[in-house]
Structure formats: structure tokens, C-alpha cells
Amino acid sequence: MGALIVCTDLWKIYRLGDVEVQALRGVSLEIERGEFVAVIGASGSGKSTLMNILGCLDTPTRGRYWLDGQDVGSMGSDALAEIRNREIGFIFQNFNLIPRTSASENVQLPLFYRGASLREQRTLAAAALARVGLAGREHHYPAQLSGGQQQRVAIARALVSFPAILLADEPTGNLDTESSRDIMVTLARLNREDGLTVMVVTHEADIAAYAAREIVVKDGQIVSDRRKAPVHARGG
Questions:
Q1: Residue 235 confidence (pLDDT)
Q2: Tens-digit pLDDT profile for residues 130-142
Q3: Sheet with 165-169, side-by-side order of all strands
Q4: Sign of torsion over alpha carbons 148, 152, 154, 155
């Protein structure tokens, strides 16, 4: 299929007073189109720093990063904002929904910022909500939805712009066990049936188990990178 993400010798160094913190230390990585990847590691391992760089929310201190054939390191802030809006769908632990707007209006936001017509916004939002099992809930507000349903709205919002990759940062961190499973099954289905590239950042092994590739990060380095049978393929 071809590599969607190519990273070579990524370093990220922060300075806290006189102290130098090496959050990433020489990370090299390729992710193919259509992969479902979990990046797993303890707090402070560097996994969130890696996701922020891959999501064009941060830049490496040194090293090279190409996304969909584009050299991200050579881009200015406006170009980075454009590639985030066009190529990347983000899912966060805290859902980041606007409380006083409906599910449909929350999903429409990326399209609004891209200048789509209201009719197109509503049509695409309804389709995205249907893809995550929320058809008929378009006019519900976040407070009227369970935590799992709110995260489904967030997934629909990430999907609505047809991104090249979904980046999910601890997407089940605020959910109970059953809702967590439902969210991971949804992401696995989108990957399997739609061919969507998905990367999940987590510290939980049972969440990483849904991915077909598991990358373990420790002390700013990749210490393990293996492909495996995901949990849904094992009847889980």
C-alpha cells in the first residue's frame, strides 16, 4: 500500500531550567496505509510526544518526518495547520465536545472551518454519525449521551473530513470497561472495513490488544515493534 508515515531519527529535547529532558531519542518508524497501530508505554515514556509530532501539533528538535509524502519538517505554522485539518483526525481522552451544541453540530465543526456549505455539513455529519452507530442521535446534546456515545461523536467528528489517519490519544481513558471495548471495536471495524489508518496511544495492554501492530516506547525510544493477531481476530 505504501508508507503513510515515515520518521527518521526523531529527537525531541526540552529544557527545564538547566535540565535537558530527552523526550524522544532517535525514533525511526514507518506506518503503512491501512494499518491499525497501538503505541504503548508508561507515563513519561515519550509516547504522547511522538503522537504530538506525528499529529503536527509539535515539531522534533531534529530528525525528519514525512506524512503522505510531504516533508512536514519544512512546513510553516499555516501549512501545518492545513495538513492537520486535511490529513489527520484526532480523538482525545476528554472527548472535547462543545456542551451547548448538538452531536451533529459538534461533528460539523471541521467542515465549518473548511468553508463547506451548511447542507454539506449536515449531510456529511449525519453519515459520519451513522458510521459509528449514532444514527438518529444527531440532535442530542453531549449531556444527553453516555460517555461511550460522546466518544463516538468525537470519532465521527474525526472521520467527517475523510482524514488519511486517525490519531487517538488514550481514547478509553475516561470510559468504563464495556464502553472501552465498544470504542475499540468501532475503531477496529473502521480500520478493517473502511481501510482507515488508525494509531492509538495507550498505557493499557488490553486496549493495545485490538491493534494488529504494537509499538512499545520506553525512555524515548522504541524498544519493541511487532505485528500480531488483533483481539477481534481471536474471537475477543
A1: 47
A2: 999 999 999 999 9
A3: 88-92, 165-169, 197-202, 36-40, 213-218, 221-227
A4: positive
Say how far apart CA 95 and CA 125 lie, in whole Å.
17
Please give the Cα distance from 198 to 203 (Å, whole number): 16
Domain map (residue ranges) of the chain: 35-63+77-234
Superfamily name with CATH number, domain 35-63+77-234 = P-loop containing nucleotide triphosphate hydrolases (3.40.50.300)
For residue 104, how far is the Cα from the chain centroid? 20
Question: What is the rounded CA–CA span in Å between residue 57 and residue 92?
Answer: 13
Say whether pLDDT at 236 is over 50.
no
pLDDT in tens, 22-52: 999 999 999 999 999 999 999 999 999 999 9
User: pTM of the full predicted structure?
Assistant: 0.91
Q: What is the pLDDT of residue 85?
A: 86
CA 208 – CA 45 distance, rounded (Å): 16
Residue 170 DSSP one-character state: S
DSSP letters along 100-135, please?
A: TS-HHHHHHHHHHHTT--HHHHHHHHHHHHHHTT-T
